[in-house]
Amino acid sequence: MLAFDGVDAGYGPLLVLREVTAEFGPGLHVVLGPNGAGKTTLLRVGAGVLPPRSGRVRILDQDVHRDPDAKRHVAYLPHRPALHPGLTVQENLEFWARILGMPSGIRRARIEGALERLGVLDLAPRYAGTLSRGQAQRVAAARALLQGARVLLMDEPTTGMDPEAARTMRAIMREMARSGCALLVSTHNLYEASELGEDVLLLGAGRVLARGTAEALRSRLGPRRVALRVGGDPQPVFERLGIEGTREGSRWVVEVGGDEEVGRLVRVLVGAGLEVWEVTGLGSLLEEVYFGLMEDSGDA
Most confidently modeled of 65-79, 217-231, 250-264? Predict the structure, then answer.
């Protein structure tokens, strides 16, 4: 659906994106990177807002920067919801529907449907300037749904939200992705990337550093550290399996290759008559690969 082919982009003399090549089909995709990595620039180029200096961006095989018709297939939700604070939610969406050329006969029904889908129909009479951050983002997402776009680009949509609002927004994004569109979400939040992303693209210094599932990305950095609380002495089992264990307080810390090796270790410990009380991964799912690759790229 959305494809970047060798894209360089920037502002004035500043080059932000460098040789970005990536394709995104239906489903939920996460662009992960620290502030300044180029995430917003990538989405702006993908939405047809910022032209690339070189390379092409295609949506459904149409060049979004050369074919104006291609832009009707993409909706862009910037970091700050672009809602007029002096208009009600209904009026904001009415204005946007007119810009889209939506016939007046279907306009109201489409607006109500989008607001209901995002769970904010009751906000229709409220002035946009009175909304919370989470409410404004959900209204902006409803506005993005109005045009029936096949590609949705969302720039750090949960930043500034309280935990409950962010959880609700992530559920909405998953539901939107299941509808068959390509949803591209940027974030610098490791936890959020782990929660959302079966497909994570790691961006650093304007370049694609890695891409894959969270687990596949992490495997690139080798062993995984796991802490275990075990009843008895696990050292003989560690030695038998060729694993080095270090005692840290009430826990043993070991390095393993992945989830399968963790499972095997637990089975052997239990088979040796030891009780395994707790198994804890050290760090978030993406933390090791994130900081490791950022350090390699010079972004850390």
Answer: 65-79
Assign domain 220-287 one CATH number from 3.30.70, 3.40.1710, 2.60.120, 3.40.50.
3.30.70
Kindly give, in sequence order, each residue whose CB lies less than 8 Å from that of residue 37, ignoring residues fewer than 6 positions away.
188, 203, 204, 205, 206, 299
By DSSP bridging, strand 182-187 and strand 151-155 are parallel
| Whether the model pTM is above 0.85 | no
Fold of 2-212: Rossmann fold (3.40.50)
Distance CA 46, CA 3 (A): 8
Q: Strands, DSSP E only, in the chain? A: 2-11, 14-24, 27-32, 54-59, 62-63, 74-77, 151-155, 182-187, 199-204, 207-212, 224-231, 245-248, 251-256, 275-281
Dist CA 26 CA 41 (whole Å)? 21
